[in-house]
Amino acid sequence: MTSSHGRGRPLHLAAAVDQPGVYDAGPYVELARLAERGGLDFVTLDNAFARPGPDASAVLSRVAPATQRVGLVPTVTTTHTEPFHVQATVATLDWVSRGRAGWRIDVSTTEGEARLFGRRYSAPLDALWQEAGEVADVAAKLWDSWEDDAEIREVPTGRFIDRDKLHHVGFTGSAFSVRGPSTVPRPPQGHPVRVVDATEEHARATAARHADVALVHAARPEQARTVRDRLRADVARSGRDPNSLLVLVSLLIDLGDGEHAAEPGHGGGGPRQTAQGPLYRGGPVDLADLISSWYKDGTADGFHLIPVEPRRDLERLVNGTVALLQHRGLFRTFYPGSTLREHLGLARPANQYVGGAA
C-alpha cells in the first residue's frame, strides 16, 4: 500500500544514523537495516572536520551491500575538498549501492578546520556557500560527462569506451577549475540526490538552485512553513519547478520517556528549541500525531529524525511511530522502486550533453 494525503504528495521519512565514537561498521549496518525495515526513504551520516569520526561516504559504502532499498546520504563537505574527488566519491557510492546514493552538501567554516589542510584560510559563509553551489553545478556536469551508453566493452576490438560519448566540462569557478571528463561512468541515478540543510539564510540560494531535498530545523510549524515558502519562491526564480524540491523538517527525537512525557500532547506541547536544535521528547504515539498533524497541514513533505540515543530511539521510531503511520495509511508499507530517486518521486535527470547541449 502506498499512501498520500489530499495534496497528492506522499509522506517522506528519513533518519540520522550518527553514532559518536563508533568506528566499526557493524553498528551502522544495524541501524541502516532497521531504517530499511521501516521503509524509510534514506539515512544520513554526518561528516565534519571539526570532530573525530569515520568518513561518512566510506562507512555508507560498507553499508550499501548489506542493505537493499534504503537510501544512503553521507555529508560530503565542499570546502577544502577537490570538486573532482567529491563528485567521484558520490558517484561511486551510487554505483556501489545500485542507485541509492545521496549527497548532503555542507561547508567548513572555522580557521581550525582550514589549518587541518593548510591550503587556504577560512572564508565568509556567503563565499563558502557560493563555492558549494559551484561544486554542485560542476558535479552534475561531471556526472553527465559520460553518456549512459559510453561504455561499449567491445572485446574483439579492445575498445572499452566510445570517446565520442565522453565530454569535457571546462568549468571555471571562483576557487577552482575542472576540465573533465569524470573517471567514473554516469551514476545509475544520473544525478545522485542532493540534500542541503537550508535552515540558515546563507545556504538557501544553493538549496534553491541545486537541492532535491531541503532540511529545515524548526520547533514550530509556522517556522517550517515560512522557510518552505521562501525556498519554493527562490526555486521558481532560479528557473526550476518549485514542486521539484522536497522540504523535510529536521528534529532531534528522544523517545526514552515512552508515553509518559512530562506534559501531554506532542511530547510536552511540541518540539522545544535547545542548543542542539529542535527536540521532540515523548513517546512514539505522540510523535506519530505530530508528524501527521504537520504533514496534513502542508507544513512539510516529511521529516528527517535524529535519534538522541541511536539504537533505542530508532527502534522505537520504526516499531512504534512508523508502524502507526502505516496503520493509519499515511506512510507506505513497501518501497516503490529500487533507487532513492524513485523513493522520493524524483525523475532521473536527462544528460545535459545529449541532444545538442554541450
Kindly provide the radius of gyration, computed on alpha-carbon positions and rounded to a whole number of angstroms: 20 Å
What is the H-and-E element order? EHEHEHEHHEEEEEHEHEHEEHEHH
Q: Which oligomerization state do the chains in this entry correspond to?
A: single chain
Percentage of residues in helical conformation: 25-40%
Main beta-sheet strand count, sense and barrel state:
8 strands, parallel, barrel
Instruction: Output mean pLDDT.
Output: 88
Low-confidence stretches: 1-6, 260-266
* Broad shape: globular
Counted by DSSP, the helix tally is: 11
Terminal CA distance: 42 Å
Major beta sheet, strand line-up: 1-2-3-4-9-10-11-14
Q: Output the structural class.
A: alpha/beta
Strand content: 15-25%
The total beta strand count reads 14
Structure explained in plain terms:
The chain is α/β, with parallel strands linked by helices. Helices cover 36% and strands 18% of the residues. The protein is built from 11 helices and 14 strands. The chain has helices at residues 25-37, 56-63, 83-96, 111-117, 125-143, 201-210, 221-237, 266-269, 284-296, 310-327, 340-344; strands at residues 12-16, 42-45, 71-77, 102-106, 151-154, 159-161, 171-172, 177-178, 193-197, 213-217, 246-254, 272-274, 277-281, 302-307. The strands form 3 sheets. It has an 8-stranded parallel β-barrel, surrounded by 7 helices. The protein has a two-stranded antiparallel ribbon with strand order 5-6. It has a two-stranded antiparallel ribbon with strand order 7-8. α6 (201-210) links the parallel β9 and β10 (213-217). Residues 1-6 and 260-266 have low confidence and may be disordered.
